[in-house]
Amino acid sequence: MTYATATVTPAQESVQELTVVEISFYDHEIRAGQKLIASISFSYDDDLTQPWVVMVNGEEIHRANTWARAWRYICTHHNDGTLPVQEQETPAATTDNEIMCQIANECEKFGFELLDDGIYQHDVKLGEVGYNNGQWWFIRASEEHLGKIPCDSVFDAMLALLIDEVVSVSCEDLLDKPFEQLTADEWRMLMEYKPVLESWDLVAA
Questions:
Q1: Among candidates 82, 76, 84, 80, which has minimal Cα distance to 57?
Q2: Can you tell me the distance from the alpha carbon of 88 to that of 109, in angstroms, rounded to the nearest whole number?
Q3: 0.70 cut: is pTM over it?
């Protein structure tokens, strides 16, 4: 969403409006019209005196102690033509709301239930799914000690939880389960199930 605007008059050029697009509280894109010219983000490193960083083309060009001073730096140098040229558009960061929507949509497709503490199926916790630093991950409830396991997409994460749930169910247990309570995956498991028969000693009559 649009966070703020400012009118900048470059020397010997027409008036141009700079717009700030808020990606998150700590990340903002600065645009001239539709063109990205810089970004401002909050750095979590040891430099606590100047945590606001101005970036162009993925490189740090300035630091400031407040967001307003980082913004003023961009306006000033864009005004006098000394701001480095942004070579290509940087995709907007995925917001937490967008991530949760994707997870919720996939949960609905798989028949899972998304609760505050994780993803469930039939009141059994399967695990957790999330997205950080450009990487999807999942944590299986049965293997929480392994921590976050990276994967390529939210679909792959859900599939990993589903496979773990299916494998964790014994076919012997499914044989005792009422037919109307079996899921499609459980039916498939039973159809492929081949019981191991105990060896029989043939006794000659």
A1: 84
A2: 36
A3: no
